[in-house]
Structure formats: structure tokens, C-alpha cells
Amino acid sequence: MDKLEFDFDNPQYEYVTTNVRLKEVSEILKEEKMVSVDTEGTSLDYYYNKLLLLQIGTPTIAYIFDTQKIKDFTPLKEVIENPKILKILQNGKFDYGIIKVALNMDIVNIYDTMLAEQIVINGYKKSASLGAMAKKYLEIELDKNYQSYQWDKVGLSGNFQKRHLNYAALDVLTLFPIFKKQLAILQKENLVKIAKLEFSVLPVVAQMELSGSYIDVDKWRQVIAELKEKRQDTATKIQSEIRPLYNSSQLDLFGNLSDVININSQQQLLELFNDRLGLSLPSTGVRVLQQNNHPVAKLILEYRASEKLISAFGENLLAKINTVTGRLHPDFRQIGADTGRFSCTSPNLQQIPRGSQFRSCFIAPKGKKLVTVDYSQQELRILAEYSGDPILINTYKEGKDLHTVTASMMYGIPEEKVKKDVERYAAKSINFGLMYGRGANSLAGQIGLSQEEAKKLLALYFKKFSKVKLWLDKAGKNAVTRKYSTTLGGRKRYFTLPDQGDPNYQKLIGDIERKGKNTPIQGSGADMVKLALVFIHMRFKKEKIDARIISTVHDEIVVEAEESVAQDALRMQKEEMLRAGATYLKAVPVEVGGEVSDVWEH
């Protein structure tokens, strides 16, 4: 291991408590090519947090600024917002938000060690925490028992002890050697390009979280009440449907017919399907029930859909409204999945179905509009780009509907004769299912065919779209032989091969092949959306219009704009999303669709 430039047991730091010294230190830091930045505070919430310490480090010394004792941080603006100075952070999105709220400064030119590590270990079940990286790269054990330091109590009273300052100093000093080790790996693995994209989108994500979304509380409660009523109606239908099977007419205490079974019990449902209905189902999982056309199975799925939405949201979501801003501020994780896609929590906006009443509860405040734009068939266009299939490419170039064209070819009927809810639906199921490695069994359940019929349909599809099959097979095999998959943006997803003696070897290899087909498609879509976020953010700043990105869900980006510039924001957003798409797709045209509205309803 290389020798550290700082003393781990006795790190060098300067505890700055006056405006005069802050100004002097700012002049010193302005001469640095790179600095590390961290904060210590009382809360993980940007708006509830009280900033206690701001640490800015060089390779050999950490400057620790006491924010309770220093009143004017303006001189540090020339460091924090200087694009010529690289800022190294760990989980920089958090510190960006904290510094923005507390000091009204935007951190510019960021390298995030957490994001870099997530890129380096993508696909492996390893940690990207500072403690894990210090152990991995520097062979040192950092004390990360943050709570035991009682930061809020000590910090607000201004009585920091040596152990607090040592902790704060090490948080920034360790970032330099970690940065050097990571950068070497990023360069060796050709991951610098994708790392730069992630670093560029970080400030956009932080601003997105800071902005948050407004919600109509009364309407939300009304939607939940209606959903609960629907759930109860569905439950009643289920009980009525199965009551004759049990010869039950028992009444409850109120004179109503008692429930025959507990429909939330997996065991009782299995007994119903297998013993009473004679269906021989292995489980009552979603896929199993989807593959069964029995009316009770459909009702159970309908009941569960309502139940899932009620339990996922309901009053739980309203409890997350920030009392300072009156808005919801979800936690967006940039690399929330191995494909590179975002994940979202507190609340999870990705769980809110498109076209649902829930979306219409997210509203624009007075004088504002919501601008929602999404990519049209983004992943299928990426599949066309990768496979080079001439039929797919020409269909998009001619502006035709891919699912209708697919159905026409598969069933041998003119495009104008294709029925939307029959042939087109089957073609659509295959088109989208291919990207997730779905086979004949899954397809059969979705479109109501026998497995044999579904197999024939898939064979027919691959005969017509031979280059799609060639690419999918190759992508799956490459994932196994190379032990990684790549995206158009240069992201890699690594795979660990199972031991050949593993009894589940073939199943595990099949899982890697499935991920190998899906990752280039879904991951490239994620790269495209992230580049679009950067482009839109930069365009709004350049044009100086009152518009800001407030959320993103998969292939969709939502902007809140001042009413008078909403149409301009829509035009700019579309242009930048198309530009991002064209950066990755060269053979296939990109299309976007969007609208301006008072609510989130696209």
C-alpha cells in the first residue's frame, strides 16, 4: 500500500472559528487544483438540518469551519463555485443540498467517490460507503459510528472535542488517496466517460430533490378512499364467487355473510385454487395468476393491485410532506439499479402508475405549470440500434407504429386490419417481453394462449426479425464469456459466474444471460435520460428561464415552469431530450412526446 500523505492517528487540521481566518484560508484554497468537501450537521433532511461544520481539505490538511461561530462564508464562494477547482466528495448529492440550503452556494466541478465506486463495483454485492472504501483502498478502519458523537448536542453548544474534529478531518483527508486509486481503475476499465456523466448529473439530482413536488392533499385522500372502496368491492366479489364452493352461508355479528376465506392468506388461496377449483397452481404469485384465465385469479390480481397502492402510499405519503416547504422531497438514487437506472424512495414515485388518479394529485403551484416529456418506445429503439434489424429501423424511420407492423408481419394480415386488443397486443407483449428475457410461458399467460401457441408465435417473430434474435443471443453469451455487459454510454455491469458444480448452475447462467440481454437496453436508456437531465438543466440556466426539473421516472422528465414560459420550457425540454437521444442512437430516430398541464398526468 502507498504511504498516506496524512497521519491517520493524528490528522492535521485547522479549526477555523473567525471570519478573518476564513477569508485568509479562502485565499489559500483558491490556489489548489483540487479540494475535498464534507459537512457535519444535525439532520439528513436538507431543510431540517442545522449545518455545524464545513470541512474543506487538501491532501495534507483539513480546514474545519465552525458554522455556528462564523457569520460570513462569502469568501469561500470563490472556492466552492470555482469551476477550475475539482471538488472531491463522498455522497456529494447530500453535501450539495446541505450547502445550497445553508450557505446558498452551488458546488461546481464534482468528483463523487461513492458514485465512482458504484460504477467500479457495479453488479457485485459490495459497499460504496466511505468506511468500506477506506478499508479496501487504504487498509485503514474509519470510525463511522456517527451517532455516538452526539453532533447536534455538541455542535449547537459549540463544544467540539478533539475526537469530533479528528472525525471531521479524516472524512475529507481520506478522499484524496481513494480518488487516486479509483481514478486508476476507471481509466483501466474505460469507465471515465460514464463516471463523468454521473458526476455531471449529480447537481441536477440534488436540485431536483431540493425542489420537490406539490401535492393536493384533499384530492389524494379522496383517491385513497375510492381505492379502498374498490378494494372492498373486489373482495366482496371474490367471496361471492367462491362461496358456493364451500357451501357457506354463515353470518357475522352484524348479520352479514361471513368471509369464506382470508384472501390475504397464501395458504388458504392455494387450497382454494388447487383443492376447490382443481387448477394445480404451484403458488399464488403474480406471474402464476397472470398465466391463469380463471375469473377468481383475475379478481385476486385486481384486489392485490389496489392493496399494494393503498399500503405503498395512503396516509404514509402525506406524512412525508416537508413542513418547511410544504412539498414532497423524494430521495433519488442516481445508480439505484445495476442497469444504471434511478431508484426513488420516500416516496417511490416510480410505483405510481401512469394515467392513474394518483398522478393527478401532483400539482403545479399557483402561477406555475408542469411540463412532462417522455421518450417514445425508448428501449425498443435502443434494441433496433443494437441489433441493426432493418425492419425495426425502417419502421421507426417511416414513423410507423412498431407493434402494428410487427403484428401485420407475424399474422400475415394488412396493417389496417390489425386489431388493437388482439394481434397488436400480442405483438406488443413480445416486443417488450424480449428485453426482459421473457419466454413462451410468460407470454402465454399474458396474452391468453397455450404455451405451444406462444412458442409458435415467438418462433414466427424471430423468423421475421432474425437480427434481433442474433443480437439477443450474442448479448446473453457475451455476458457469460466476458463477465460483464456494457451500455451505449460506456457503463459496465459485472457478473460473477457460478461454480460449475453448483446444482443450480444452468439456472444461474440463464439468469446472467437474461441480464446480459436486458442491461445494454435498459442501461442505455438510463444513460440517455441522465444526459438529457444535464442538457435540460444547462439549457434552462443558459436561457435564464424560470423552470426547474422536479422529478424523473424511467424515460420521463417532469419540469415545473412559470406559467408564461411553460411552452418555451416544453420546446427546450423536447429539443434537449432529442439531442441526448441522438448522442447515443445513430441509426434510429428518437421521438419524444410531452405536454403542459396543471397536474402530473402524462
Structural category is: alpha+beta
List unreliable stretches of 5+ residues.
Answer: none
Distance between the termini: 54 Å
CATH superfamily of the largest domain: Ribonuclease H-like superfamily/Ribonuclease H
| CA-based gyration radius | 28 Å
**Can you name the CATH architecture of the largest domain?**
2-Layer Sandwich
Beta-strand percentage range: 5-15%
CATH uppermost class of the largest domain: Alpha Beta
Question: How much helix, percentage-wise, in residues?
Answer: 40-55%
Overall pLDDT metric: 93
- Number of helical elements: 23
Biggest β-sheet description: 6 strands, mixed
What is the number of beta strands? 16
Instruction: Determine the CATH topology of the largest domain.
Output: Nucleotidyltransferase, domain 5
Tell me, what's the shape? globular
Instruction: Name the strands of the widest sheet in spatial order.
Output: 1-4-3-2-5-6
The domain tally reads 4
